[in-house]
Design goal:
149 residues; binds protoporphyrin IX containing FE; 4 helices; mainly alpha
């Protein structure tokens, strides 16, 4: 029982870290694109790669601990979280991570052409989807533990 609570706490902390990091990447990207210089955009793209050194392990920890906590449970709130994770994971690994590398590579060479903005748009949309799904998972996690109604 005690280890369940420890894993649950670690899960929630990793969840908040993941959510805040993606929120930071998303808002700093939008801000730099709208108001910043090319240098600023390139700096944001570079920093996102460094941030992923924390984000990727945090996401793995969220998924690993979440599935472990869930076990064979059948709570619909938690089943919904699992389904969302089936979108969050591939969306992150197949779209957001490659996009971050590609955008950083173009930005570091000053190549702000069609390819950059096309992939940037995809990244903004995919990032917003993951943020929304992670927010819903946070809400349903807190509901499942009775912290919010
Ligand atoms: C993807 C982002 C996720 C976030 C941000 C998140 C967040 C949270 C939070 C904040 C809690 C409440 C912890 C507490 O009150 O002590 C929680 C609990 C929980 N989460 Fe997640 N979670 C995520 C993904 C998942 C996944 C993928 C699963 C499993 C399939 C999962 C399964 C659980 C379980 C089983 C609990 C404990 C419920 C209980 O004890 O009644 N979570 N989560």
């Amino acid at each position: 029982m005690k280890s369940y609570l420890i894993i649950r706490r670690a899960h929630a902390i990793a969840g908040v870290i993941g959510f805040v990091l993606i929120l930071t990447f998303w808002t700093s990207t939008a801000w730099a694109e709208l108001f910043g210089t090319y240098e600023m955009i390139a700096a944001v793209k570079q920093n996102i790669l460094w941030g992923m050194v924390i984000l990727v392990p945090a996401m793995a920890a969220i998924g690993g601990s979440g599935f472990r906590l869930m076990g064979k449970g059948r709570d619909p709130l938690l089943l919904a979280k699992k389904q969302r994770m089936m979108i969050i994971g591939p969306n992150g690994l197949l779209i957001l991570v490659p996009a971050a590398f590609y955008l950083n590579s173009l930005a570091s060479q000053g190549l702000f052409g069609f390819s950059f903005y096309a992939v940037q748009m995809i990244e903004i949309v995919a990032g917003a989807i993951n943020l929304t799904l992670m927010g819903l998972n946070m809400r349903d996690g807190l509901r499942a533990t009775g912290r919010i109604p």
